Structures are given as C-alpha cells and as structure tokens.
Amino acid sequence: MVVIDGGALTREQVVAVVRDGADVEVGADALAEVAKTRDHVERLAEAVTPTYGVSTGFGALATRHIPPDRRAALQRSLIRSHAAGAGDPVETEVVRGLMLLRLRTLASGRTGVRPETVEALAFLLNAGITPVVHEYGSLGCSGDLAPLSAVALALMGEGEVTVDGRRTPARDALYEAGIEPLELAEKEGLALVNGTDGMLGMLVLALHDLHRLLDIADLTAAMSVEALLGTDRVFAADLQALRPHPGQAVSAARMTALLAGSAIMDSHRGPDCNRVQDAYSLRCAPQVHGAARDTVSYVETVADRELAAAIDNPVVLPDGRVESNGNFHGAPVAYTLDFLAIPVADVAGMAERRTDRMLDANRSHGLPPFLAADPGVDSGHMIAQYTQAAIVSELKRLAVPASVDSIPSSAMQEDHVSMGWSAARKLRRAVDGLTTVLAIELLTAARALDLRAPLTPAPATARAVAALRETVPRPGPDRHLAPEIAAAEALVRSGDLP
C-alpha cells in the first residue's frame, strides 16, 4: 500500500504502484487540505470578478466569462475536446504512471478539486481500470493534455478503458467496479489535465530500468574482456582515482570483481603476453558506463524534485489566491529524457563493437570466425551482430533531442512547448533497444567463453553463463537464433544476472 499524503512520492513507490500493482490510499490529512482549498475555489466561483480556470474559458479562449449554469458543460467540453489522442494505445504502466502522479498533485491541495474527485482517481487505480491513452496528443506543455484528458474522460464514464487486458467502455467498467461517474465542477477539468505526469512517469520507469541495464553492461563488458583475452589491470582503483568520476569508479570496481579468479585471465598474465593495450571498447568501458551512471544520477535529482512538485495552472495557494503560472512547462523533464538517450545509445554502441570483435577471427585471438562450429557451413553469430548494428543505428537517431523542436499551438497563446512526451516515448524505445543489444553481447560472450575451454572463466562470469545455459544450449551447429536472442533478452530483463 502506498499512502498519498500530499507530499513527495519516491521513485520506488511509483514503480510499486505502476508495475507491481500496489494499491494507493489518500491520507486523511491530504483530503482535509483538499477540502480546505476547494472552499476557496467555490467562493471564487460565486464572485462577480472572473477567475481563470474557475469561471472562464481556457487557453486562447480565456477572455470569455462563463455563467454558472454553463460551467458543468464547460468542464465536460474541455475533457471531451482535449481527449483528442491518436495512434496506438500506450503501455498500461505508462497510463498507471500518469494516473498516479496526477493523483499525487491533486492530493497536494494546490489544485482546487473536490475530495471526491481525488478519491475517484484512487479508486480507478486500485480497481485496475486503465484508460486507453494514445501515442500522440501531448506537446509537453500545458500538461500532457490529450493523455490526461483520456483519464479524466474515463472518470466521467466516457471513452474506453482496459481491464485485465480487455478493452471495454469506461461506463461499463466503472459500473462493474462500483464507481460512480464524476460530474466535474469548476476548475476540475484543468486540474485533471494540466500536468507533466506522463513524461515524468516514463522518466521514473526509465531510471529504474537503467540501473539494472548499466550493471548488466558492466557484466557483459567484463565477459567480453575475458573472452578476448584482455587485461583487467586498466580497471585498477588507483588508475580510476586519477579521474575521480563516481560512476567510473563504480563500473571499474564492478568489472574488477566480476573478473576476479578467472583462469582465462590468468592464462595470459605472464611475460610472454604481447598485449600492450586493449581496444577502446574494452579498455574504456568504465569511462563510458561510468559517464552513463553519472548522467542517471543527475537525472534522478530532477525526477525527485518533480515528484515533490504540484503542477497545475492556475494553482490555489494556501492563502486562497488563485494564480496563473508556468510550472506546467515540461522543459526540466524533457531535457533529462533527451539527455538519457545519449548515453543509452553510446553504451549500446560500445557493446556492439565488443560483439563484433569477438566474431572477427583477425581480432579475437584464437576464436573461430563468427564463433561458428564449422565456419563456412555455419555462420555462428554473424547476423546477430547485424541485429545489434541495426538497433544501434536506431538508437543514434533516437538520441536526437525532441525538446528543441517546439511547435506553437493554441492560436499562439502556447507559443513554446517542451515536446517532453515525445522525448519520453523515444527514450522508452531506446531503453528497449539497449536491452536487446546487451542480450546479444551476453549471448555472444557466453559462447566465446565456452569456446575457451578447458580454460574456465571467473566465478561471477561463469554464473552468468550458467544462467543463460538454462534456456540457451552450449555452442554447436547453427540453430534458429532468434529464440536464443529472445531468451537472453528475457534473462537481461529478469534481474537474475550477477
């Protein structure tokens, strides 16, 4: 159970709700603050002087004062018109993320919604009802408008949702769950849609995944160094300390530990070894992986600030003022989403170079061409590297920033936008691509280590090989390779590697 108390959420709490299905509960103190703020909104609704978002139109239509008998229609019209997404439905975890993060902001007491509206969104999450949210419709400014409007539409009993993977009308799903459709009151339409919750949720999930993937990148790099008869001396702590980046030190220490006790490494440590320097893709792995770790660390600070933010426009302050602001602009999140796509592409590119080196008999120091059982008859992992190369090429394109590509909207009222949702969508694809690239390096390095027999790998890398061998057989004549890549990818995703 995750309690929404109006304060910050942790990244771990987000993942628990979004991926693991933990229930949420809105705390009593948070609901009391929500009710107090709602009193301010209702007084303003009765006032003669118009207040944006309470008694006016929205965006470029904010100059029109809306009479009281038309305000319920105003809220319905806002949500219906803004639920204008297109394209394929996005993943359930993404929708649950934006629902949870919008709930957290509503519970902060700064948006002016009613307590029953806050509780309705919590009920929707706990019932496992996921509104259908489409790929396109957010410019990352004035909030993730179309995605969040699809959620608000479901609260109204309109649109479509999924329940247990089954697509169904929202009204039917609410009825089956015992949830009454909401009739939105003043200010609530804006409050439900005016946040950066979709892009932030995707950022939190990417950070969670990248912690695991960067650890696996250290593992697959160590396995490749071992398989290619490289040296671990370059990973020594005193050498890393000469350039004191914390992420670099972590990756170097991990690679040193992973290679400890390797008979393969010991076999070429003597004076007869003519290896002076390894290629950059081996020798510089801690520098690249470490820079990626440090990027993740910086981005975590931004994510944590956002998880403590209350983003809406206008906001209701504790003294009752309703003030317009620009906090809905997604630039702080969008920049970090774009930033992460760069090291994702680079880590993957370095892994592909190591894989290619293991397959090239001119550079692999005694391994058969393409690690084939009968080179010429068999092609080994030749085309697996093609798959890696295709993904790496795609990752380079995905590293091009979305956040510099502003397009004006709303009759030039919203004349600069963040494109943060687009940055988040491409980062998700990039993280998936890195997963597959590392899986192929794992598959190839494990095969190469097996081919070094009777020499044995380090205990840690041997455990990784053994884990893979539970689903992928040892080297032999060519087999259907796609299922083996899929099995390696499933292992990478599982978290069961050292």
Automatic annotation (TrEMBL):
It catalyses: L-histidine = trans-urocanate + NH4(+). Contains an active site 4-methylidene-imidazol-5-one (MIO), which is formed autocatalytically by cyclization and dehydration of residues Cys-Ser-Gly. One of its GO terms (biological process) is L-histidine catabolic process to glutamate and formate. Its EC number is 4.3.1.3. It holds the Pfam family Lyase_aromatic. PANTHER family: HISTIDINE AMMONIA-LYASE. This is Histidine ammonia-lyase. It comes from Actinophytocola oryzae. The gene is hutH.
